[in-house]
Specification:
The structure is a single chain. By secondary structure, this protein is α/β, with parallel strands linked by helices. The radius of gyration is 30 Å and the shape is globular. The two termini are 49 Å apart. Helix 1 packs antiparallel against helix 6, helix 11 packs antiparallel against helix 17 and helix 13 runs antiparallel to helix 16. Among the domains are: 110 residues, Alpha-Beta Plaits; 97 residues, Phosphorylase Kinase, domain 1, CATH 3.30.200; 212 residues, Transferase(Phosphotransferase), domain 1, CATH 1.10.510.10. It is found in: Membrane. It is an enzyme of class 2 (transferase). Keywords: ATP-binding, Glycoprotein, Kinase, Leucine-rich repeat, Membrane, Nucleotide-binding, Receptor, Repeat, Serine/threonine-protein kinase, Signal, Transferase, Transmembrane, Transmembrane helix.
Length: 938
């Protein structure tokens, strides 16, 4: 390593001397460092030619007095890693690499040496590992946006040293631990008195919210800690920050009463405390005169009538109090709030006559009072609003008008209107609102604390569209038009919409325009009106300029200026070259033939045949797991132990290690690496590589953070799956299974489908795992494979068990049992009873919920989602667990039926889920077994 380091120093020295002679307007050290930093990157801009970034005006590079001061390369589809060489760009002030998912690895600690850095934006990249404490050394930092990566570990307390920080965004990562505050010996977030934005949503932060996190000296306007695992009560100190405008602590595990002094926050317009375990009386918010949107749903407040103070809040537009213990009559004056647009009070105990009357707000668009006890309704026929009253006595009467009793409203269908003839565009192009074909710059615009509902509010979307267009025109960006579509609220309480920016002159943007557009949105240069703040933009890859070649950096060969000292250092490197080459050759030989010691004559079968799986040496795996530290032990089973590891590029992996010194399971080891190295699908777990070294057998998988489906159904993971999420998990699993049965060549029978072998990633996407028992199905025309019975009791196909004949329908039976688990949250065999038999004996299709009310998971029955498509789901489940395989559907038929059920439930089955596990955290935060653990096999 010392020799390599020496050679690297020589190379940098050579570059510095070389650039000193060739770089006309760029500081020689900056030019050399930039070249070294990006040497391994791909898809660099075409303009990066020659060796003078400042003089040649490299795209994304800005200079001042020959020094590089900004690097803005957002949305360039770059791939590579940041290296420690970055620290030498001593005059760098802005670094923006947003929307480059291919930039991976860890954030180097040396970044703390960029003493003049004011803006660090790495939004939407692929960084992983912990956020280095050295970030706290960037004393001039104003913007810090590390959101939407894969950072883990705790929030560095050193960030509290950044006294000039205005914007702090660490949301949408995998950060854990408590919120850091100062204690005299170390800094904390409570010292950030000049910071306006605390964005920590969609992480895994835990513990109580420190009382001294907030104080009256702070100038915060946005405090977003939603979708975490925070416990305890909301501290009274929050009420001391009178500058606040948006507060989100929803979707945590908070308890206790809401502090009364929140009523002092007269500037707050958005307050979201839903989906916690808050108790005590419903808080009195009379003093929050700026309140536009409030959501207190799904808490355990004391039963009460609808608070009188609502009518005093003249700015109120959205009221959401689902499952909050409201009872009695809904006052008619409630609907007279002048700005009121959306009211959601479903699943309470409201009763009597609903009197909306003629004094309701002219802006009223949507009222959801489902699942209450309302018996009569008085409406204003002159008003145009949507009213939902299903599951009320009113809807059980005869001769009741049906529109108010509809359960499924559907989603927003807003799309930017077009007033011209839409042309037919070439492949990859889209028609703009001005009917011109072009390649737009697209992405998802997310409002993190919207003050309005998506239902019937087209005027807001039009306003946002025109605001964006006017802004880009004002700053002379080549934008012809802006299109907005598919606006919908997600399960995090975020409002998502698709944006497309169309070029003004050409059919596509150039790199400079794309980078500028991205920077404007990533660093919040565009400032919308209050109802659209705070926001975040997630850009899609922009491909029209893709495929650019790596720029040439070949300069003049070493000349006389190299000097004797450089030659001397080069000779030192050469002295160690032979030794390093020898070691490299030995390693290459081992990598080329890792199975030289495979026992082909024993019980292990032939040498494994691989297609691209990476070979890891024992030393590499040992280093990645910190010598197999028990801290990194995340699971165990009959096969051995599973460890969390971090590779040298920062990628987090799961390493499945067989029992020490044993060759047990060698067939399963061989089977899994052979099969997983040749199948690739988003619903199958990815095999990174393997280790067959030092007598060890280890499998290296992608790390799946949210455990197994079994963990979620049993409550071990703390993740709660509602009806829609279960449908999406079922569909994803079925699609993975369909790939194995119908698209793999030859087809594969999994042979061990069970809820413990279906993993859930950070977005709760289902991934089928554990292929140790799988069999190829392409070498027979009999329709089955005769083999020894293996699998897990409870999921085992009875026909296969009796005949030893394995078919693809054997997987269908196991999948049917998994569907039963999703319905009941019960184990296949519980207290000696087989759930399949119990369900078949209980089901009665003439009764409500097929007479399965006592078997259904209570969490489903208490969920806010109506069980739309339930009967069809049960029908499909029963078909899958038929006694004989010929009576079961094919995997393709299962997928098609689940897609139909998803549509019945009001969701597009082809829409990728953006929901992460944080929105389904339950109260159980106990540790749970890792998804790669295996349990009892037959």
């Amino acid at each position: 390593m010392r020799i390599i380091g020496c050679c690297k120093q020589v190379f940098i020295a050579f570059l510095c001397i070389h650039f000193c002679c060739t770089a006309g307007q760029t500081n020689f050290q900056d030019a050399a460092v930039l070249k070294s930093l990006t040497d391994g990157w791909k898809n660099l801009p075409h303009s990066w030619t020659g060796e003078d970034p400042c003089g040649k005006r490299w795209e994304g590079i800005t200079c001042s007095k020959s020094r590089i001061v900004t690097i803005t390369l957002a949305s360039m589809d770059l791939t590579g890693q940041l290296t420690g060489d970055l620290e030498s760009l001593s005059e760098l002030q802005i670094l923006d690499l947003s929307y480059n998912k291919g930039i991976t690895g860890s954030l180097p600690p040396s970044i703390g040496k960029l003493s003049k850095l004011t803006t660090l934006i790495l939004l939407g990249c692929g960084f992983s590992g912990s956020i280095p404490n050295s970030v706290g050394s960037l004393k001039k930092l104003v913007y810090l946006s590390l959101n939407s990566n894969r950072f883990t570990g705790e929030v560095p307390a050193s960030i509290g040293s950044l006294r000039q920080l205005y914007w702090l965004d660490l949301s949408d990562n995998q950060l854990t631990g408590s919120i850091p505050v100062s204690d005299g010996s170390k800094p904390g977030l409570d010292l950030l008195v000049n910071t306006k934005h605390f964005h920590f949503g969609k992480n895994r932060l835990s513990g109580e919210i420190p009382r001294n996190l907030f104080n009256s000296n702070m100038t915060l306007i946005h405090v977003l800690f939603d979708n975490n695992r925070l416990t305890g009560s909301i501290p009274e100190s929050l009420g001391l920050v009178h500058t606040l405008q948006a507060v989100r602590f929803d979707r945590n595990l908070l308890s206790g009463a809401v502090p009364p002094n929140l009523n002092d926050l007269i500037g707050v317009s958005e307050l979201m405390l839903s989906n916690n375990a808050l108790t005590g009386p419903v808080p009195n918010l009379t003093g929050m005169v700026s309140l536009i949107s409030v959501d207190l749903s799904n808490n355990s407040f004391e039963a009460t009538t609808v608070p009188h103070w609502f009518s005093a809040l003249k700015s109120l537009k959205t009221v959401i109090m689902e499952r909050t213990g409201l009872e009695g009559l809904l006052p008619s004056g409630f609907f007279s709030i002048p700005q009121l647009e959306t009211v959601i009070l479903k699943s309470n105990q409201l009763n009597g006559t609903l009197d909306i009357g003629g004094s309701s707000s002219q802006l009223l668009k949507f009222i959801d009072l489902q699942n209450n006890s309302i018996s009569n309704v008085k409406l204003d026929p002159g008003k145009n609003y949507t009213l939902m009253l299903s599951d009320n006595p009113f809807c059980q009467k005869s001769l009741v008008a049906s529109p108010y009793c509809n359960k499924n409203l559907g989603s927003s269908s807003y799309k930017t209107p077009v007033f011209c003839v839409t042309p037919k565009c070439a492949s990859g192009q889209m028609s703009s609102p001005t009917c011109k074909c072009a390649y737009p710059y697209t992405g998802t615009f997310v409002l993190r604390a919207p003050s309005f509902s998506t239902l019937g509010n087209d005027a807001y979307f039009t306003e946002l569209q025109l605001s964006l267009l006017q802004f880009f025109v004002d700053i002379s960006l080549p934008v012809d038009s802006v299109s907005l579509s598919n606006a919908a609220m997600d399960s995090f309480g975020y409002l998502n919409m698709h944006l497309a920016f169309f070029p003004a002159k050409e059919v596509h943007f150039n790199r400079t325009a794309v980078s500028t557009l991205a920077f404007v949105l990533s660093n919040q240069t565009y400032t919308p009106k209050k109802q659209f703040k705070p926001y975040v933009f997630f850009a899609d890859n922009y491909t029209p300029f893709a495929g650019s070649k790596k720029p040439s950096h070949i300069g003049a060969i070493i000349g006389a200026v190299m000097g004797v000292s450089i030659l001397l250092l080069l000779s030192i490197c050469a002295a160690g070259y032979a030794f390093s080459q020898k070691k490299r050759a030995e390693k290459a030989n081992q990598q080329a033939n890792p199975f030289v010691s495979w026992d082909s004559q024993g019980t292990s079968g032939d040498v494994p045949k691989l297609k691209g799986a990476r070979f890891f040496t024992f030393d590499e795996v040992q280093k990645s797991t910190n010598n197999f530290s028990e801290i990194n032990n995340v699971g165990s089973g009959g096969y051995g132990k599973v460890y969390r590891g971090v590779l040298t590029d920062g990628e987090i992996v799961a390493i499945k290690r067989s029992q020490q010194g044993s060759m047990q399971g060698s067939r399963e080891f061989k089977n899994e690496i052979e099969l997983l190295s040749r199948v690739h699908h988003k619903n199958l777990v990815k095999l990174i590589g393997f280790c067959f070294d030092h007598g060890e057998q280890m499998l290296v998988y992608e790390f799946i953070p949210n455990g197994t489906l079994l963990d979620s159904l049993s409550g071990k993971s703390g993740i709660e799956l509602d009806w829609i999420r279960r449908l999406k998990v079922a569909l994803g699993s079925a699609r993975g299974l369909q790939y194995l049965h119908e698209l793999a060549d030859p087809p594969i029978i999994h042979r061990d489908i069970k809820s413990n072998n279906i993993l859930l990633d950070e977005r709760l996407t289902a991934k089928v795992a554990d292929f140790g028992l799988s069999r190829l199905f392409g070498d027979t025309d009999k329709g089955y494979v005769t083999t020894q019975v293996k699998g897990t009791m409870g999921y085992l196909d009875p026909e296969y068990f009796m005949t030893n004949q394995l078919t693809d329908k054997s997987d269908i039976f196991g999948f049917g049992v998994v569907l039963l688990e999703m319905l009941t949250a019960r184990k296949p065999i519980q207290q000696g009873k087989f759930i399949v038999k119990v369900m078949k004996e209980t089901v009665d299709k003439s009764k409500d919920l097929y007479n399965l009310g006592e078997l259904i998971d209570p969490m489903l029955l208490s969920s806010s989602n109506t069980l739309l498509g339930f009967e069809k789901f049960v029908d499909l489940t029963l078909k899958c667990v038929e006694e004989f395989g010929v009576d079961r559907p094919s995997t393709g038929e299962v997928v098609k039926e689940l897609e139909i059920i998803m549509q019945l439930a009001g969701f597009n089955p082809d829409t990728e889920s953006t929901t992460t596990s944080q929105s389904y955290q339950g109260s159980n935060t106990k540790s749970f077994s890792h998804p790669y653990s295996d349990d009892s096999l037959v």
